[in-house]
Amino acid sequence: MKSSQKVKLCDICNIRTGKLDSNAAVEGGKYPFFTCAQETFSIDKFAFDTEAVLLGGNNANGIFPLKYYQGKFNAYQRTYIIESKDRSKILNKFVYFSLRPVLKYFKSASIGAATQYLTKPVLDNLKINLPDIKTQRSIIDIVYIYDDLIGINQKRIQLLEQATRLLYREWFVYFRFPGHENVKMIDIKGLHIPEGWKYVPITEINIFKKISVGVPVFSDMRQYYQTSNINRTDLIGDGEQVDFENRPSRASITPIINAVYFARMKDTEKFLYFNKNNSDLLDKILLSTGMTGFKTAEKYLGFLFALVSSYEFIQNKNNFATGATQVSLSDSGLKKIKVVFPKIELIEKFSEITNPWLEACSNLRKQNQKLAQARDLLLPRLMSGKIDVSEFDNHNIPLESEVEKIVN
After folding, report:
1. 14-24, pLDDT tens digit by residue?
2. What is the CATH number of domain 152-364?
3. Under CATH, to which class is 1-131 assigned?
């Protein structure tokens, strides 16, 4: 890499904030609304039309969301909007990649007790490496190859999970399952369902067992995921490394294989499932008690995932959620949720079809973890100039093991 200089962020970028309250989001709004949550919300009015880096300025755990966006958007008053002052000297995408490796530093530099605040002086005085524009573009191209592959895999995961839910809806909501033409429909408690099926509380289904909440005993480091930093069923988000001594008080679920977890919070559609393909993650993850779930036999796993991630179950969860400051589903509320329960042989047939789809999702997640780990090993070294961009002239994509050879 050609020689580069260290510069303060405030000398090369304009840093401002949004003006709105965090509750200004509008469901189905036309424009993105950036807050201090990992999730991007929507809104009907925009205040900015530019290319910028969005950085959340406060977070309960100091895990500040960092995003790049170009177009019309709006922002919360504690969200920093960071833009290059001169794009002939520094590119906005390069600013975005420069800030990625320092997110952990932001956490340590933030202030506050219940909520961590990232102050503007910390941003202003942050020094980043500034190579020439050609080198910046090369670094952006290299990192985006990893991000693009991860994005493609995430879309494939979403399609496979959606296919599972659509098949569930076809079989168990519309009752167009194999052989439905020869099945008599009967009325049970106001529902018109196939003969031999049941309408029962989900907690009373004997092939499912609710996962009890207990404090785990462990001494090694775990990745802690709370409901706010899990992106639906994604496990390569912004989990926080914790150990037993410093674990959050809300952390008390260690994942179990052949289990499906879901967020207790109202209007929160987040799910995690663990099967034989991602069983290696079990001793590395700690989940928030903001999630609960059920375990089952492997032959029923596809049905369990489709059931608890279905529109009908989510609506029931929201209907029975209670609370003053935080509306969520309690154990007593969970017992009130009734579901249509088909014959066991049909459940097995459904899972026989869908389990391979979920296994494929697990394999794609493993690929994404390797890509993300390789990218995160490379990124700080590319930014600092320790690795020359010329090593990637052919756009080869080394994975984690190959990257370790390069960085070592």
Report:
1. 999 999 998 89
2. 3.90.220
3. alpha beta
